[in-house]
UniProtKB/TrEMBL annotation:
Listed InterPro entries: Pre_C2HC_dom (IPR006579)
Residues covered by the Pre-C2HC domain: 72-138
Compositionally biased intervals (Basic and acidic residues): 237-247
Protein name stated in the entry: Pre-C2HC domain-containing protein
Residue ranges, compositional bias (Low complexity): 204-224
Lineage: Eukaryota, Metazoa, Ecdysozoa, Arthropoda, Hexapoda
Pfam families in UniProt: PRE_C2HC
Region (Disordered): 195-247
Amino acid sequence: MEVPKLLTTQHIRYTKAKLINDGVAIYPCSPQDHRALTRTLTDKGEEYHTFTLSEERTLRVVIRGIPEGITPSEVQLDLEQQGFPGAIVHRMAGRQNRQEMPLVLVQAQADQESILQVTRCCSLVVRVERQRKQQVATQCHRCQRFGHGQSRCTAAPKCVKCGENHSTHECKKSRDTPARCANCAGPHPASYLGCPKYPKSKQTKTPVKTHTPTPTQTAANTQPTPAPTPGTSYADMTKKDTTTNTS
């Protein structure tokens, strides 16, 4: 696909287009150009990912105290009856073992701030809070690449467990079969934080301190952090921690 020619023929304005690791990054001039570009790429069957426009962003909250036996649809119906129509509800699960937790993630309309005042849901006492900012790199649950989410991705699906071209929930891999990363082909799930393809800047980022340490404090506080042992595999890591589930 010739990007400049496509944008010109479709009268899509953009500030710049540049090559990146997995394609071309295009920066539209306006929300209208953004929508026109995504429509064009979709019509042509091109794979792409993008980000939510600021005017389309939703309010994301976590409801604590919803046991696994209550389905997201039941929570959605209850919230609708409380005056929050259109909410999208997902059951949350642990990142490593994917075990369901008594938490649900809710995407509500941006003007529904009063959802934070909800104290009961599905006849249970609950606590609602804003979703906390992730401490790990964003990973797409569709293509398994880093840096974007699945809701704005049209790439072919990849399994987080075996790396094959199917969605994770369709995977038939047994627990005895080794995992295979969709990003580096290593013997670990694509969600493994020790993956060579994981964005390193996210792991080394530290908060900025405003005070000026004394020489003694500087020496004590700047000891180098032990680096991961070269060649350590996912299998080696799991031998030390038998609670990790790779399936």
